[in-house]
Each structure stands twice: as C-alpha cells, then as structure tokens.
Amino acid sequence: MKSILKSFINGILTIVPIILVIYVIYKTFIFLDGLLGNTLKPYLKEDYIPGIGLLSTIILITLLGWLSTKYITGKIIKIIDRLLEKIPVVKTIYSVIKDTIQSFLGEKKSFSKVALVTIPGTEMRSIGFITSEQLEDFYSPLKDHIAVYIPQTFQVAGFTFLIPKEQVEIINIKPEEAMKFILSGGMTSTVKQKEAE
After folding, report:
1. Which pairing describes strands 168-171 and 114-118: parallel, antiparallel, or unpaired?
2. Which pairing describes strands 168-171 and 158-164: parallel, antiparallel, or unpaired?
3. Is residue 23 pLDDT above 90, yes or no?
4. Which residue in 158, 155, 156 sits closest to 147, CA to CA?
5. Where is pLDDT greater, at 95 or 23?
6. Minimal CA–CA distance to 158: which of 107, 102, 115, 193?
7. Mean pLDDT to the nearest integer, 42-53
8. In what order do the strands lie in the sheet with 145-151?
9. Which segment of the chain is annotated as a signal peptide (predicted)?
C-alpha cells in the first residue's frame, strides 16, 4: 500500500505540473488566437486553421509598431495617446495599462532590480522589486525614497512600499529567480539545494 501511495504521489509531482503548464499554454493560445480569429472565422469558414488569428494579431501589432515610428502615423498615434490621457476615468485605466506594459517591455524596465528590505521594528527581511527610483516627481518629500513592490506568496497580489534609499539593499539575484522564490514561499531554493546535494 505504501508503495502504491508513493507511486501516486510521484505521479502527482511529475505529471500535474506538466499538465497544468500545457493547459495554461493551450488557454493562452486559444485566447490570443481568438482576438482576431473570431473576426476571421466567418470569412474563412472551413479554410480557417487554428493559429491564423494569433499570427494575424502578431502581424497587426508589428505593423502598428512600425507605423508608430513613421512621421504622419506617429503623430496620429500621439494625438490618440493624448486624448486617452485627458478623458476622465479612461485616463486612469489607460495610464495604468500603459505604464505596466512599459515597465516590463520598455527601455526602463521595472522589476529588473531585486531588493532586500527589513520590516520595521523587527529583524525580519523580505524580498521585493524596485519599481521606481524617482519619486520626487510624484511627491517632492519622497525624493530620498524608492518604491519597492513586494509580491505575496502563492499569488500575484502584493504591496508597494515607499522606503528610504539607505534602508534598501539591492542584491545580485535574477528577477526571475527572486519571483520564483517569493511565489513558492521559498521552496524553490530548498529544491535546488537538495538537487545539488
């Protein structure tokens, strides 16, 4: 019975992560393919091949990105950008989405520096990511502070703390490794240590 239970647990540990990854990739593919795929299906009918919608989306985004670098179309996109930033409610949603995308893909990427911070009044420490080092423009008394985002374990939600610069220690760890460490509750480092042994 113990042998059967052990084999079952090994099966869960081996197979479940693979199945979940395949499921997430499949759902992501279906979502991205459906963005333009649902528009193209009525026209192509039986000729529609799964993936055409995704390919069309990639081509469209690339084309719009190329057009944004051209003089006339670039000016039009800038006008649309300014309009969206002036419409009440819409400007808040637009700026959050725009800043989030730029923080991951823009020239000044956020989450590129891993920070180690001490929780006030304790000797406990937490790992986070520096999201902004220029808080003076946001609120001038915060010129000596930086924004550190600290994710919560087993979820994407987290907290943003504004901490004095001298109290933040930047550590030389890849952001991906730090994120895995946090989201897994520190278990990834334990697994690696066991594998090394």
Report:
1. antiparallel
2. unpaired
3. yes
4. 158
5. 23
6. 115
7. 85
8. 158-164, 145-151, 125-132, 114-118, 168-171
9. none
Measuring CA to CA, how many Å separate 123 from each of 73, 118, 128? Answer: 55, 7, 16
Cα gap 123→192, rounded to integer Å: 26
CA separation, residue 38 to residues 35, 45, 61, 102, 154 (Å):
7, 11, 17, 28, 34
**Dihedral, 29, 32, 36, 41 alpha carbons, nearest 10:** 20
Average pLDDT over residues 129-142: 88
* Contact of 161 with 117, CB cutoff 8 Å: yes
Tokens 């593919």, residue located: 29
Distance, CA of 145 to CA of 165 (rounded, Å): 5
Of the listed ranges 69-73, 147-151, 161-165, 184-188, the least confidently predicted one is: 184-188
